[in-house]
Amino acid sequence: LDILVRLYNETGALVATYNPSGLSVDVNITLASGRYYAFVDGTGAGIPATDGYSDYASLGIYAISGYIPQYCIAKGGTSYEFIANVNLGIINNTSGNNSGYADFTALSTSLTRGATRTINLRAGFVSGVYAERWAVWIDYNRDGDFTDAGETVVTTTSSGTAAVAASFTVPASASLGRTRMRVAMRYDAIPSSCGTYSYGEVEDY
Asked: Do the bridges between strand 36-42 and strand 3-9 make them parallel or antiparallel, or are there none, so unpaired?
């Protein structure tokens, strides 16, 4: 079965169509909460009389499997410091104090396989000024965690309110499609991608 998939929302509006070459279909999409329907059909390829086959000849069975990535919880404490600004590509987010964690996954930018990019990070302070440690992760294979090789893309230190710039190169093996970037800042140690700590903040993009 050469599969074609149409994805509809609960009102019956077409959201996306997937008809790649080959038999299987990989549906990767970020959706708002709600009910969705996957319409599965057979499809032809090429010219049936010479080098292809028709929808009539595309018959068989199929199975559906999938998952929704569930990222681990990470949160800091912002009694003294917080993430003031994150700048990468068209993301230029001055966010202020978000009580330890903020979900900015509505903000995005494009990255290209093999390209070197620079991210700028700036800390803000409630009182006093401190040196802060930073880490940035990108879920390049989109499996719902930041633990795979090469997904820790930045570890650096900033001093006071001055922004710090760090560069990274997107691997050629990075999966295509939307994924998550996590930015964490911590006062007393390099932050981890999961867990809570007393001084610092975490933001997701």
From this structure: antiparallel
